[in-house]
Amino acid sequence: MQMGDETRQRVKFTDDRVCKSHLLDCCPHDILAGTRMDLGECTKIHDLALRADYEIASKERDLFFELDAMDHLESFIAECDRRTELAKKRLAETQEEISAEVSAKAEKVHELNEEIGKLLAKAEQLGAEGNVDESQKILMEVEKVRAKKKEAEEEYRNSMPASSFQQQKLRVCEVCSAYLGLHDNDRRLADHFGGKLHLGFIQIREKLDQLRKTVAEKQEKRNQDRLRRREEREREERLSRRSGSRTRDRRRSRSRDRRRRRSRSTSRERRKLSRSRSRDRHRRHRSRSRSHSRGHRRASRDRSAKYKFSRERASREESWESGRSERGPPDWRLESSNGKMASRRGSSL
């Protein structure tokens, strides 16, 4: 399907409406155009500008359009092969039954006819290209094959009645599903095997084989890339788990260290508290001891002073008693405030 200017501006080569087989230059609608099996216009967009855009983009990244084109060609070739088998079945029903030996001889004639047709088509192509020498060599091979064909036809003619031999024996071409006659002349064979229809089917089948190989290689590469990415993810996950395990171990280790430090700190605090309490008890004990000792010493000093005072008093009393006995009756005198002594007796008077 051709595009107008407005549609061309809107549509990109990645659009689903664009024919991927056309972008890869293998669409059967283009290849078989103008032949007896012309398929008409393709239902999808064909545009050479989009093909140029695709060729530029495909150099930078893999678009994997080969898969779409392969599916398209496989569908087309499958339909062609179905028609070939149907034509064979129809020929088997309409043509006269012959023995396996006669059929094999007829098959040999057909094979030689195909070989002659292919050689003549190749010779014509070489002659058109200006390679006359190679073309002459091909024609010499054609003469050899023609001699073989003549012998094969003679064997086939002798193996069956003349009436049956005169009947046209048809065969279906395995490449393009066209009918070939057993008695076709060289010109007819050359036109068929060198014609656009037969060569077009050869091009389509070769392109399909190439696409299958390319798709298989790219799928294998994608599978390898996918496997490598999965292995990388698994390796990263293992490393992450190991890192997480090490992180958890470090956290646990730090937690244990913190618990140990807290335990040691608590133990130190307890020891400090215990020592402080011990020192307090010791201080209180020493304070009580000193207080008891001071009280004991004070009491001792008091007792000593009392004892000393008692002895001194006793000594004074003894001394006084002794002096009174020597002096006679005591004459009590008191010292007045003016320094004069006064006798208690006088004061009583």
From TrEMBL:
Keywords: Coiled coil, mRNA processing, mRNA splicing. Residues 77-155 form a coiled coil. The keyword Coiled coil applies. GO terms for molecular function: mRNA binding. Residues 215-240, 301-334 have a biased composition (Basic and acidic residues). Residues 215-349 are annotated as: Disordered. One of its GO terms (cellular component) is U1 snRNP. One of its GO terms (biological process) is mRNA splice site recognition. Residues 241-300 have a biased composition (Basic residues). The keyword Protease does not apply. Belongs to the Luc7 family. This is LUC7 like.
